């Protein structure tokens, strides 16, 4: 390994984690890169580069923050060779692999090649002539005062189902525990290659989400009675679409890779982080 890239949360204190990475890298002659606008607030030895350079030059990308930082790091690593190690500085940190106290052991495991990489699916679309990419979800969302999201879902060019809702979310399995989950969508293992279409707060008689093949082309068409909708990409508004317009989406397998150290499984993380509970009707151990 020749270089490691740091992606920092814009506000949280990452000094301890940065020091751990710099110490590890310094002992091994590994160059540490950081996005110039981010590392300027830290007095550290990382080399300032552009986001594009960081993705291109890094052999490992280390995300220091929460899930939003991890998603940004995955977008920087999109199509590049570097896997992403997520270090949680927040409360939930569903996508991160380790917390800060475990970072030195994680870096030692990477030294010893005692890790695996897990490919992650992205979903792409073209919005007003530019490509947008999400690792969690792309959603068309009601703008307050502009009416509901009235959207026809087409699969492979054929009409499939229509929704009237506050939003329609197209999520990857990675994003199944985010907006889609809050809208009632299924929790889906990241090993599954599929796209999840979930209506949020549906007003229509048919309110079920659907799971589609990653090889299907999905089109969201705004029907004439729809309001103007915001297009959210991993939670950030990237533009707007109006009735009569459409958004074509395609899944892209193995767009990025994340480091897994085998400490927990996806299902253990989902149960703990989402605080999943069993039905009250099911007796617990020791109950009679």
Can you give a write-up of this model?
- The chain has 288 residues and is of the alpha/beta class.
- It has two domains: 3-115 and 261-273, Probable inorganic polyphosphate/atp-NAD kinase, domain 1 (Rossmann fold), CATH 3.40.50; 122-253, Sandwich (Tumour Suppressor Smad4), CATH 2.60.200.
- Helix content is 19%, strand content 39%.
- It contains seven helices and 18 strands.
- The protein has helices spanning 15-26, 36-39, 51-57, 67-76, 103-111, 179-182, 266-273; strands at 3-8, 31-35, 47-49, 60-65, 84-88, 98-99, 116-127, 130-134, 137-142, 149-155, 158-165, 167-171, 194-200, 210-213, 218-222, 229-233, 236-241, 246-260.
- The strands form three sheets. It has a six-stranded parallel beta sheet, sandwiched between helices. The protein has a six-stranded antiparallel beta sheet with strand order 8-7-18-15-10-11, with helices on one face. It has a six-stranded antiparallel beta sheet with strand order 14-13-12-9-16-17.
- α2 links the parallel β2 (31-35) and β3.
- The chain is globular and about 60 Å long.
- The N and C termini lie far apart (57 Å).
- The model has no long low-confidence stretch (mean pLDDT 92).
- Its EC number is 2.7.1.23.
- One of its GO terms (cellular component) is cytoplasm.
- Its cofactor is a divalent metal cation.
Helix content: 10-25%
CATH class of the largest domain: Mainly Beta
Percent in strands: 35-45%
Mean pLDDT value = 92
Q: What is the SS-derived class?
A: alpha/beta
Secondary-structure element string: EHEHEHEHEEHEEEEEEHEEEEEEH
CATH topology of the largest domain: Tumour Suppressor Smad4
Radius of gyration: 21 Å
Placed side by side, the strands forming the largest sheet appear as: 3-2-1-4-5-6
Anisotropy-based shape? globular
What low-confidence regions span 5 or more consecutive residues with pLDDT below 50? none
**What is the H level of CATH, i.e. the homologous superfamily of the largest domain?**
Probable inorganic polyphosphate/atp-NAD kinase, domain 2
């Amino acid at each position: 390994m020749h270089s490691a890239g740091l992606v920092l949360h814009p506000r949280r204190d990452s000094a301890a984690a940065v020091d751990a990475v710099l110490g590890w890298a310094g002992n091994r002659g590994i160059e540490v890169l950081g996005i110039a606008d981010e590392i300027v607030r830290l007095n550290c030895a990382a080399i300032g580069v552009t986001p594009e350079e960081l993705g291109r030059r890094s052999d490992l990308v280390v995300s220091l923050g929460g899930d939003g930082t991890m998603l940004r790091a995955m977008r920087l690593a999109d199509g590049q060779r570097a896997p992403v190690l997520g270090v949680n500085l927040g409360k939930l940190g569903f996508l991160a692999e380790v917390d800060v106290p475990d970072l030195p052991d994680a870096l030692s495991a990477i030294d010893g090649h005692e890790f695996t990489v897990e490919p992650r699916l992205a979903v792409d679309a073209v919005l007003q002539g530019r490509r947008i990419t999400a690792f969690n979800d792309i959603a068309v969302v009601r703008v307050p005062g502009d009416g509901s999201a009235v959207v026809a879902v087409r699969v492979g060019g054929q009409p499939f189902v229509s929704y009237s809702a506050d939003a329609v979310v197209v999520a990857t399995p990675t994003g199944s525990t985010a907006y889609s989950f809050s809208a009632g969508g299924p929790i889906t293992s990241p090993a599954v290659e599929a796209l999840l279409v979930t209506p949020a707060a549906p007003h229509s008689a048919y309110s079920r989400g659907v799971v589609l093949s990653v090889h299907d082309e999905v089109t969201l068409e705004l029907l004439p009675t729809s309001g103007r909708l915001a297009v959210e990409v991993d939670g950030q508004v990237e533009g707007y679409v109006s009735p009569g317009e459409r958004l074509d989406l395609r899944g892209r397998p193995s767009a990025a890779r994340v480091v897994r150290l085998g400490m927990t499984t996806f299902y253990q993380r989902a149960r703990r982080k989402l605080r999943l509970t069993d039905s009250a009707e099911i007796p617990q151990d020791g109950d009679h």
